[in-house]
Design a protein that fits this description.
With 219 residues, this protein is of the alpha+beta class. The protein has a domain of 92 residues: Ribosomal protein S16 (S16 Ribosomal Protein, Chain: A), CATH 3.30.1320.10. Helix content is 50%, strand content 15%. It has four helices and five strands; from the N terminus they run ββββαβααα. The longest helix is centred in the middle third of the chain and has 78 residues.
């Protein structure tokens, strides 16, 4: 029986969540399986892997064939490195203590890399959140200014309309002034005595005398 180590899909639509299972190679992908040895969540960054290391190593050493994705997961978790080290121990190339030290050194470096990736992802998330909040704040301020401007125009129109209504109301309450004509009374016209016109004496204007020129006798 060809034993396979593969992923079995679970989760909701567009939100996949996988189980890492040991199954018969002839079984359907999401069908019956022999053993579940871990989970794989691709929705996180980096992806979250929970695996039973000893059981995964056991199945790899017994010849179970992993899928391409599961092979990458097992390498990432150090399963194939431990298999290689245990092969060296069996051949007498290295001791168990040396194998453990090498594996621990690799594990620390890998954990450090994962921590750096997580920190960078967290910093990126915070930066994106900050930018998003700044953009939302600017948008709210712009909307608030537009609303305030519209409200100011509305208030101005209402005040103008109220003022015009008050003017019209005052005009309606003020009674119209009727022009009254005094009754004509028959008054006998008295003759107006004409004052005699005094004639002013004519003033004679002095006549300018022309200068007399003496005529010179003709020779």
């Amino acid at each position: 029986m060809a034993t396979r180590i593969r992923l079995q899909r679970h989760g909701k639509k567009n939100q996949p969540f996988y189980h890492i299972v040991i199954a018969d190679g002839r079984a359907p992908r999401d069908g019956r399986f022999i053993e579940k040895i871990g989970t794989y969540n691709t929705l996180t960054h980096p992806a979250t892997i929970n695996i039973d290391f000893d059981r995964a190593l056991y199945w790899v050493e017994t010849g179970a064939s992993p899928s391409d994705t599961v092979r990458s997961i097992l390498k990432h978790e150090g399963v194939y490195l431990m298999k290689h080290l245990r092969g060296g121990i069996a051949k007498g190339a290295i001791s168990e203590n040396e194998a453990e030290k090498k594996f621990d050194t690799w594990k620390q470096e890998k954990d450090s890399q994962v921590s750096n990736v997580k920190r960078e992802a967290a910093d990126k998330t915070r930066e994106e959140k900050k930018k998003r909040m700044e953009a939302e704040t600017k948008l709210r301020e712009t909307i608030a200014k537009k609303v305030a401007a519209k409200y100011a125009v509305k208030v101005e129109k209402e005040a103008k309309a109220e003022a015009e209504a008050e003017v019209e109301e005052v005009a309606e309450e003020t009674p119209a002034v009727e022009e009254t004509t005094a009754p004509e009374t028959s008054v006998a016209e008295e003759p107006v005595a004409e004052e005699p016109v005094k004639e002013e004496p004519a003033v004679e204007e002095p006549v300018a005398e022309e200068p007399v020129t003496e005529e010179t006798p003709a020779e």
